[in-house]
Amino acid sequence: MSTCIDIGGFKISPDHYIDGGRVASAASFELHSPIDQSFLGQVSEGFPEHVDAAVTAAGEAFPAWAGMGPVQRGIVLNRFAEEIGKRAEAFCLAESTDAGVLLSRMKHGVVPRAMLNISWFAEQALRLQDHTIETDQATHLVRHDPAGVAAVITPWNAPLMLATWKLGPALAAGNTVVLKSPEWAPLTSSLLADAAHAAQMPAGVFNLVHGAGITTGARLVADPRLARISFTGSVPTARAIAKQAAEHLVPCSLELGGKSAFIVLDDADLEHAAATAALMYRNAGQVCLAGTRLLVHARVYDRFVALMRGYVEKLVVGDPRLSQTEVGPIIHMRQVDRICGYVERAVASGAEPLWGGRRHPAGPQYYEPTLLAGVAQDSEIVQNEVFGPVLTVQAFSNDGEAVELANGTDYGLGGVCYGETGRATGVAKAVRTGFIWVNSFGIRDLAAPFGGIKRSGIGREGGSWSFEFFCDVKDVVLPKTPFRASFSSR
Fold first, then answer.
1. What percent of the chain has pLDDT over 70?
2. Could you read off the pLDDT of 148-164 as tens digits, one per residue?
3. Which SS3 state, helix, strand or coil, does residue 68 take?
4. CA contacts within 13 A on the Cβ side of 56
5. Quick check: 395 and 364 in contact, CB under 8 A?
6. pLDDT value at position 483?
7. Can you tell me whether residue 327 is helix, strand or coil?
8. Given a cut of 70, is residue 1 above it in pLDDT?
9. Nearest 5°: CA angle at 474, between 473 and 478?
């Protein structure tokens, strides 16, 4: 057993969790906090033998877990949700420390949502009973059968929320799971293993391996024994996963990046729109669904920018564990350098920073909330996902131009449109994206579909869509009249 990592007095195992127990590695990787670059500890590195053992354990546990039925599985999963709640403070401190997520957001949003992700899907699984389709010839009993072993790979920007968002339906449907934690923020994944163990989840049903995506993750998605792969992350990684999965025809759900438009019509409530636009800097802009491209009607452009500036100037950048902080650190120095490169190249190409555009004095991994004007539609800064606190702003003269600009990237995850409700709804319908908020932002319901189009992903998560992915849908056909096979004579 490796030395536990101490976060605020809470001891967190750095080891894998396989077949109901902790498994250490001969080698490990260092974990540092983005808050102050302090050393947090060593985390076990996942080698092929750990991945193979985890998939084997999940495969062996599958028949019993699938055969348990939704009622008994629901009892276990509700205990799992309760155990997450019992560890709420540890989850909050761990993710704030290793991922830089605001502690206040963890307490009031993420942990309660993580618990709900488990319990809600457990409840919904009870509704996956056989339902019938009646035709003249037959009664069709449509079943949702568990698929098998599911690989779940989550990103570092929201490790707990996104892990439970996938674990909930996968486990409730009767699958067993191997979770690959994000190497830059693995601690809450480890705490999930503790919660599963305390909930007396049968050995092998939930397994956890740590390690880098290019090694541990690649080994996992290449395993032919997998029945499903659910991934949230970058487009390049998704392409690599899809290629591996294609070798064995393993279905994939891919929730990828975004470059969403935030449209402000000339009849919008500008105060409300400007305040909402300032929210795009939360989590230091490391949010895939953020509206990072501000598209503002020329008639209200100057007023909107002035109003937004007032809100942005009040944002407090700093330690995410402090209650007054609203913008925390960037996850890794590699990501900081990436953000700096995007902004520097944009400015060199003629973009004008209306505010920000540089590192923040709070520390090496902090970046100022930034807004760039004077950007061309075909420029790198408009077309590519920066994944930092960097927004662009462009003016338009009519609704058609707004839609054209909004649709003018290879991404299609989310979007925002502010204006008179009827008009804004019309514009929203014309934007090619997986979802779009009208006069609002961030409203999410577990029953609603979530996912993108184009380079923003394949498939939908949430509600029945999650179960459609994690289940094998089967049609049991019962004829209404006696069936007699007939063969043509020759």
1. 99
2. 999 999 999 999 999 99
3. coil
4. 7
5. no
6. 83
7. strand
8. no
9. 150
Distance CA 360, CA 357 (A): 9
The residue with tokens 């890794």 is 332
Q: Is 340 an annotated catalytic residue?
A: no
- pLDDT at residue 254 in the model: 97
Task: Yes or no: say if 303 and 267 are a contact pair by the CB < 8 Å rule.
Answer: no
**Residue 467: which residues within 8 A CB-CB, separation 6 or more?**
124, 125, 128, 144, 169, 172, 173
Check residue 442 and give its pLDDT: 93
Give residue-wise pLDDT tens across range 434-465: 999 999 999 999 999 999 999 999 999 999 99
Question: Contact at 8 Å (CB) between 318 and 326?
Answer: no
Cα distances from 356 to residues 9, 130, 281, 359, 361, in angstroms, run 37, 56, 12, 8, 12
Active-site residue identified among 83, 95, 183, 255: 255
Listed range (16-30, 118-132, 148-162) with the worst mean pLDDT = 118-132
Lookup result for tokens 């998605």:
221
Residue partners of 36: CB distance under 8 A and separation at least 6: 319, 363
What are the structural domains, with CATH classification, of the chain?
Answer: 5-256+456-476 (3.40.605.10), 261-438 (3.40.309.10)
Which of these, 325, 269, 293, 271, lies nearest to 415 by C-alpha position? 293
Instruction: Return the SS3 of 240.
Output: helix
Average pLDDT over residues 315-334: 97
DSSP secondary structure string for all residues of 108-124: IIIHHHHHHHHHHHHHH
DSSP secondary structure letters along 330-388: -S-HHHHHHHHHHHHHHHHTT-EEEE--SB-TT-TT-B--EEEES--TTSHHHHS---S
- Answer yes or no: 255 catalytic: yes
Residue 207, beta-bridge partner list: 178
Q: Is the pTM of this model over 0.85?
A: yes
Specify the DSSP class assigned to residue 66.
H
